[in-house]
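Might you be able to review the protein record set out just below?
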Amino acid sequence: MKMVLIVGPRERHAELIRLMETAGVPAYTELTQVNGAGLTGKKLGTPEWPDRSTLLFTIVPDDRKAALTAALKHFQTKLYPEEGLRAFVLPVEEEL
């Protein structure tokens, strides 16, 4: 199994949820309005840096990882450069 961690634009939250459902990934956890800084700039929720991101993570069987990551790569091509989307795939060693 793999954990896929997705950090994306808060304004695209609903699109990301639909993307995961279409890729056969119905279960996820979300942290909305997260702050951070990265390649696309700062998103701190302040007057100077007003944007925020959304963080989604899910655990998928190995055979679903490819469909999800392919869908995320395609989604990245439709974003404006300042929106930014990052996804990370991590091994899941144990599930309790």
